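This section describes the prediction task in plain terms. A model, or a person checking by hand, is given the sequence of a single protein chain and must write out its three-dimensional structure as a string of tokens. No templates, partner chains or ligands are provided. The sample shown here is typical of the held-out split.
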Amino acid sequence: MTINRTFTAQDLIPYIDWPHFLFAWEFKGASLHSKEAETLKVEALKVLSGMSAEEAIIKCRARILDAGSEGDDILIFDTDKTLRFPCLRQQLKDKGSSYHRCLADYLAPVGMQHPIGNRLGVFATAAHLPALQTATTDFQKMMLQTLADRLAEAAADRLHHEVLHAEWGKPLDQPFYGIRPAVGYPSLPDMSANFLLDSIIDFSALNIRLTESGMMIPHAAVSGLIFAHPKAVYFNVGPISEEQFLDYAKRREVSAEWLDKFVHYLK
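The expected answer:
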């Protein structure tokens, strides 16, 4: 199943994470509830409410595919190919956890059935605000960039909800379960994973291009995976050993030298 959506800024206002918007403006702790923070939020809402469909184009795509785990790898079964998506496993347990987590754990082993099915969501979103190119003041640029970032994240949030509804029947008016780790985040820290996702989603359809470092352009873009396992949690991969790094490079079928550019800080 493939879901393609284009949202307006107004569509996504209910999904915006305002604390993270304010963090970008360096509001923290008690200042998040200050009069200045509330004034900034009101101004941001005014900007969003006034954006036409041409002034804020938020494109999204998700594919829901058969998948399963094989060790620390996720095998994704596309129409005409099988893609191996290697993952990293924690070597330091989270506090209160009894095991070292890996994203592959949230899918049943290949060939085994699971009550929620062996299905995986792959997604990407991008917020295009043409006014960013013509903004004349630092305040305007900051406001538009921080709103673009939040709109891309809000679109991912809404898309996650719609994927769970379309594939797993979760009601749209109820809190959703599962996790949506994005590339570059603690449980999916390797930016080169974007090259794998691009081969599934086709980022160009969302007017996204990748740099050599795996970063997405525009900056206000998000990509990642959607797991529906009810016990799935976010976690931090954290530091890995040289042994795991070399094994990961082998499973990715790339040279250790090339991969080191993306995950050297984990070693």
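For orientation: The chain has a mean pLDDT of 91.
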